């Protein structure tokens, strides 16, 4: 239940000194308030978190539970395109059905003045693009956690393909300390209509660039993310187009046994990769124990 909109005594004492009350956590100085016209739920903009080609993500104050949340707004021009609206609605519908500690919680989806909004849990932490592992063992451990999220997604009926596994979409949450997979804007249900080409250079497999993703496409993304964590280099630079495989991993400092696991996870053909994310997690387990 949301608290009263009337400021408490502690808020009045700290008004004008800070954006949030240090006692109760209430937002004291925010921005534009967005309201779900059907439920009346209110979200107050605090800051812009990211702006991409398809959407803008904001940090907002959720007045329903007096907590920070993330609000994603589809680009105004794209919102006029049926395919963009379809992808955005699919992201909301899929996220609303998910229930896993490694996935942000869904809060709300609504449209107002021909604009479309998705509200979800704010994950406090750093992306794996921002944080450097202390060792190969820690990096392997993080990828096992990512695999565990994929075990859940791929085990649903129908299975859910994330289609955008990369360091920027994996957050190391502060508390509890765990890896969380974010950004479900490219999500696809396995067995659905093929043809839409959504791919991130350096992290997406060949079949995804052809519009034919499968469960093993996410496994490829995990393998390429691990290459980045271990080398801090763009993983695409290791891909040899003529040989259709990664080369130079050992020269970049990755031990041969771990490089072999990565080579299988990033095989050109999906059927040559690990059978599923659980198999990849088992293959990485010995390297996470060191």
TrEMBL record:
Keywords in alphabetical order: ATP-binding, Kinase, Nucleotide-binding, Transferase
Single GO MF descriptor: ATP binding
Protein kinase domain ranges (all copies): 43-285
UniProt xrefs under InterPro entries: Kinase-like_dom_sf, Prot_kinase_dom, Ser/Thr_kinase_AS
E.C. no: 2.7.11.1
SMART domains (alphabetical): S_TKc
Enzyme class: transferase
Transmembrane is among the record's keywords: no
Alphabetical list of Gene3D superfamilies matching this protein: Phosphorylase Kinase, domain 1, Transferase(Phosphotransferase) domain 1
Name recorded for this polypeptide: Serine/threonine kinase
Organism: Gloeobacter violaceus (strain ATCC 29082 / PCC 7421)
């Amino acid at each position: 239940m949301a608290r009263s909109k009337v400021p408490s005594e502690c808020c009045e004492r700290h008004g004008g000194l800070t954006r949030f009350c240090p006692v109760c956590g209430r937002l004291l100085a925010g921005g534009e308030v967005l309201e779900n016209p059907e439920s009346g739920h209110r979200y107050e903009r605090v800051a812009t978190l990211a702006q991409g080609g398809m959407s803008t993500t904001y940090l907002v104050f959720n007045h329903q539970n007096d907590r920070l949340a993330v609000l994603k707004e589809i680009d105004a021009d794209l919102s006029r395109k049926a395919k963009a609206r379809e992808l955005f609605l699919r992201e909301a519908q899929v996220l609303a059905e998910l229930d896993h500690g490694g996935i942000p919680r869904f809060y709300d989806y609504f449209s107002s003045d021909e604009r479309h909004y998705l509200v979800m849990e704010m994950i406090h932490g750093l992306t794996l693009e921002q944080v450097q592992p202390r060792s190969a063992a820690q990096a392997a451990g993080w990828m096992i956690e990512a695999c565990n999220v994929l075990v859940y997604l791929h085990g649903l009926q129908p299975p859910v393909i994330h289609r955008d596994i990369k360091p920027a979409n994996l957050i190391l949450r502060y508390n509890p300390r765990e890896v969380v997979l974010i950004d479900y804007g490219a999500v696809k249900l396995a067995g659905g209509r093929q043809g839409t080409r959504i791919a991130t250079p350096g992290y997406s497999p060949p079949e995804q660039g052809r519009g034919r993703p499968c469960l093993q496409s996410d496994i490829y993304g995990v393998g390429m993310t691990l290459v980045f964590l271990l080398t801090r280099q763009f993983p695409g630079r290791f891909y040899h187009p003529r040989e259709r495989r990664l080369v130079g991993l050992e020269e970049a400092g990755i031990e041969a046994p771990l490089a072999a696991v990565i080579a299988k996870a990033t095989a050109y053909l999906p059927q040559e990769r690990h059978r599923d994310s659980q198999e990849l997690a088992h293959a990485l387990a010995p390297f996470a124990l060191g």
